[in-house]
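Q: What would this chain look like folded?
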Amino acid sequence: MAMAAFRREGRRFAPLITPRTIAAVGSSPIPGEQAPLGVRSISTQIVRNRMKSVKNIQKITKAMKMVAASKLRAVQTRAENSRGLWQPFTALLGDAPKIAEWLKLLHSSLEDYFGQSTPIWGVDVKKNVIVTISSDKGLCGGINSTSVKISRALHKLTSGPEKHTKYVILGEKAKAQLTRDSKKYIDLCITELQKNPLNYTQVSVLADEILKNVEYDALRVVFNKFQSVVSFAPTTSTVLSPEILERESEAGGKVGDLDSYEIEGGETKAEVLQNLSEFQFSCVLFNGVLENACSEQGARMSAMDSSSRNAGEMLDRLTLTYNRTRQAAITTELTEIISGASALEG
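A: My prediction, written as structure tokens:
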């Protein structure tokens, strides 16, 4: 009945009730601010803009997940094939890449994991070089921070009064983190490794460049070994210098079985150990770069999948908020209209 009375009197009182007047009386998130003409409430416009931005972000994360899956398929086969390069050195030189349980490394008992005495993995060395492999881009979970934590723990463990440890960094992310507190220990930084697909020849050139610019007794290569799309293992592989290999061979250490092999070609034992050490480092570095690239793409797939799901959940909450806000604005306007009609009748 009130609505019928308002319709009857609508033409007469239309100039007194304008859209701008109703909008000004309506709710606004900013006190004293009037909503634009034709908009029920400025809060709904804000929510609409936020919904639009979340939808765009969700599209980007889904596209990045698809790109990472495509790159992962291409790199995974090469990484699995490269594992056969360093495996012969395990039987010959006695060192296999070790899964570094970084939770133990960050624990107070570091020496309990690597051995009670200062020599780690049975070899006493004074000059250590930690080769940290990371990615150049982010949005790939915690693989880079994990490699940096392992590297810092190794640096703490291998440092001492008569020993020194240096860093060689591959990748922009590890460089950014280690430069903050360990800049004076960094000897060499190499970035943009993943710009183009790497082959063994290119990695051999990088390995040769590293060997020319550092003095070392042992190279500790830190990388993330690919296990599955959702799993990777921080891994450390040790490459000894030719001098340490010869010393261990003479002392009957882990490389003492070299005397049982026959050397052909007129090369001396020192020359053979030199070639073995350089070739081992290039093989381990090649495998580490590919394994880390696989882990990066797998972690990026997982991160982008989680981001897409989170964006969907946020979009649902924003849609609910938008509908509630819109309905509240409509209810407020209807209440004002009915109140005005009742006042006219009175």
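Residues 1-41, 101-121 have pLDDT under 50 and may be disordered.
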